[in-house]
Amino acid sequence: MQRLLALIGPLPFIALAIAAAGLSLGAATGLFEEVFSPLLATFSSAWRYPLTGLALAASYFAYGLTLLMVAPLLNFLLGGRLQPYRGPAVSLTALRWYVHCTLTLVVRYSFLEFVTPSPFAQLYYRLMGMKIGRNVTINSTAIADPSLIEMADGVTIGGSASIMAHYAQGGYLVIAPVRLGAGATIGLRAIVMGGVEVGEKAKVLAGSFVLPNTRIPAGETWAGIPAQRVELERDAAAGNGAN
Question: Which GO terms describe its molecular function (predicted)?
Fold first, then answer.
């Protein structure tokens, strides 16, 4: 079976991406043909061309908003909700991960940037299985494996930060949940890997890399590559004493 899966390679997932994008484009095409085209035909060419551009842009956003619904629906129908896993990257069990990744990436690279941060992006992540609390800010589209990511109330994800609930180890694919406690902050361009738990009100500073399975206690600040605890409070106290 592994040989068969290796032989067919990415073709089924390319087809899945085409299906998700194609169904969503169908909605955009219908909007353009049935609503905009008859209206555009009533204008002279001087107005028709710029108005056609506006109609095409509006149709593109109709595509994107439809895709935010279609991709999670296909993910649900094809069993793309993830479970923790450690094993070969090419296996029947790993197929769920490939389905989930495909439907995450097709949305990320074709539309998600336009609605991040916004309630539309959070709705999409929720439909893909992510657990999101109240007053959460997600200012990044570099979110992989959303169905195994949990963000409690008040979490802040900085711009271009990466959170992924998977990694490779010893020749195996490992899929492990990521949990961010209430009030946790992940800084600009920081990277958080699978199996990480960040405690309440803890901070990961900009550009840091949090290794897989790291546990960051509540209230601590971590930074660096790899990320380690930063003694900011002690340094501040020493500075006040010197004054």
Answer: transferase activity
Average pLDDT, the chain: 88
On whether the CB atoms of residues 127 and 107 are closer than 8 A, the answer is no
Same domain, 42 and 95: yes
In the chain, which residue ranges form alpha helices assigned H by DSSP?
2-8, 11-31, 37-40, 45-77, 95-110, 119-127, 232-242
Residue pair 135/153 in contact by the 8 Å Cβ criterion: yes
pLDDT 10s digits, 143-184 = 999 999 999 999 999 999 999 999 988 889 999 999 999 999
The single residue listed with the structure tokens 């271009």 is: 160
pTM of the model as a whole = 0.85
Range(s) of the domain holding residue 219 = 115-231
Query: Residue 217 is part of a domain; what is its CATH number?
Result: 2.160.10.10
Categorize the per-residue pLDDT at 232 as very low, low, confident or very high, splitting at 50, 70 and 90: low
CA distance 75 to 92: 16
CA distance 87 to 96: 13
Q: Extract the tokens encoding 220.
A: 């601590």
Query: Both tokens of residue 72?
Result: 């999670």
Is residue 127 within 8 Å of residue 108, measured between CB atoms?
Answer: no
pLDDT class of 242 with cuts at 50, 70, 90: very low
